[in-house]
């Protein structure tokens, strides 16, 4: 009597499915098993190792929908091999992914350790960059705080039926019951037609579907309040730091907790309150997250984080720190040779910070004198002001501008000897440092230094802070970095930036078809981004491992 054929015989020995199974067998899955009872009570569950192998193989093949994975477990031989011919449904797959999100994120370090053991990690050059990934939320679900509060108030009013008379209460209850039953029937019918018997638990419970809209609105309002609180606290902390450095109280109005710096009201998304409206250069905006990544020249991802801010500048030091920690935990003790990043990460602080390795960041060239030079007619009026033939206020009335503009333009374009050649660039450190040193010694006033250097008061203060050792001046830091980048050896290192990090994003977005998060909330998308980066490293490991 012939035995039924094994599905494993239908795949070649070097197939990706077997590599995934072998890799899962080498991983430490204690954190997965710890989530289940060990006393034999409760319902039966699928083997966590098998479920993890299915999830990893699905992401390796570009499948993230739990329903499509369920279909593949029936139709695709490789999926059946990975699942040992078992067929968990989409709800089980989605619950597994949500229940073990922290353990799944932790797999990144283990797979990185396998890459280190295989000799794939050379940290001589590590490139840091970010890419925008769409959230599982609509841009049109953003609401201002007033609109959210109004909708929440309306919901609360509908729930205050206890304050009504008994007779009215019975009638109202009947009407509400009819409306609720009708709405529930309509919702159930629509969901059954679209999804079948269940939707799949892919979201945090408090944000799932429309049935908990009030909870999601509260979450959005809390997010708005936390943003306001963080802004106020950071501004007060910055002010306190400056006062401590100067040894005196700053003048001017203090920040207020209820004051908004932005001209437009803050908005939060009712579907995923953690997501943000992110600009995409010439491509408009998107509702999404900023996925930060660090990779070696062999395109091995050594750090993966997710933030909800568009600006890359605040994330350079945290990413560099995460790289060092991840490599140490993975058993790579040689350290990092150089961190390279594009101009989006440039700040004077990032360029001069100590991260245990060489730092090479492309600098941003500041625009100088954005305002156009006054035309000849205006210059003629300014010349009269310079010669004392016309007052600043009278000239302002003639030109239709403020007298302060007349004053500043006169000082910029005219001197004691008449019209002068104006600057086309900011003064070099060799020019302004001796002048500012005189200011620091009390030999020259700030106003005189401002007029001599033709810069703003704010710029004079920044120069003075540099001379006093309170902060590094941006122009000095920029010049230092430009000098470093001009060195032939460093230039060769920086040339490897694009070929190190850009192929990683290309593989993830194009080959693995990962352009939108399937889950919602910052912890969930952080876990998912680490999962996709783990899969990227896993595929690199498979290509480097002999069959």
From TrEMBL:
Region entry Disordered, spans: 225-275
Domain Transposase DDE: 477-541
Residues covered by the Transposase InsH N-terminal domain: 8-99
Residue ranges, compositional bias (Basic and acidic residues): 225-246
PANTHER family, sorted: TRANSPOSASE, TRANSPOSASE DDE DOMAIN-CONTAINING PROTEIN
Protein name: Transposase
Annotated organism of origin: Kribbella jejuensis
Organismal lineage: Bacteria, Bacillati, Actinomycetota, Actinomycetes, Propionibacteriales
